[in-house]
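Researcher: Sequence recovery benchmark, item below. Answer with residues only.
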């Protein structure tokens, strides 16, 4: 299931938050319920022109049901190399896209993190949570 999609600032990439379906198939017959969703969240970086997957980043976990999945919001900066995402696990994750590694797992929120945003000067990352911080 796709939870959110965001363009990179230069329009060359799409950052897609997904919650994969269990059992491999995401397609259900019209009369059948949708397959169950995994608790793992994957952040995909796609080439906007070809829609090919450039990188996949994990680390978040979901706790909501498949009927009401939590929407994750992401941001990207530093020549499209640094990604950040908040989630239901009350953490902000920061990854290096091209190196494929997680740089930080920031803890401190008491409730799910709804959004993240890099400052215009690109030196500060802000996050917003259900805990009102």
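Model:
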């Amino acid at each position: 299931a796709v939870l959110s999609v965001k363009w990179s600032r230069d329009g060359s990439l799409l950052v897609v938050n997904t919650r994969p379906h269990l059992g491999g198939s995401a397609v259900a017959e019209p009369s059948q319920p949708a397959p169950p969703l995994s608790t793992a969240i994957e952040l995909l970086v796609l080439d906007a022109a070809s829609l090919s997957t450039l990188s996949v980043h994990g680390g978040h976990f979901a706790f909501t049901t498949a009927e009401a999945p939590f929407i994750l919001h992401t941001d990207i900066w530093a020549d499209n190399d640094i990604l950040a995402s908040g989630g239901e696990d009350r953490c902000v994750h920061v990854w290096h896209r091209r190196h494929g590694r997680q740089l930080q797992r920031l803890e401190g929120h008491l409730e799910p993190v709804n959004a993240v945003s890099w400052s215009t000067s690109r030196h500060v990352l802000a996050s917003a949570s259900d805990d009102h911080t």
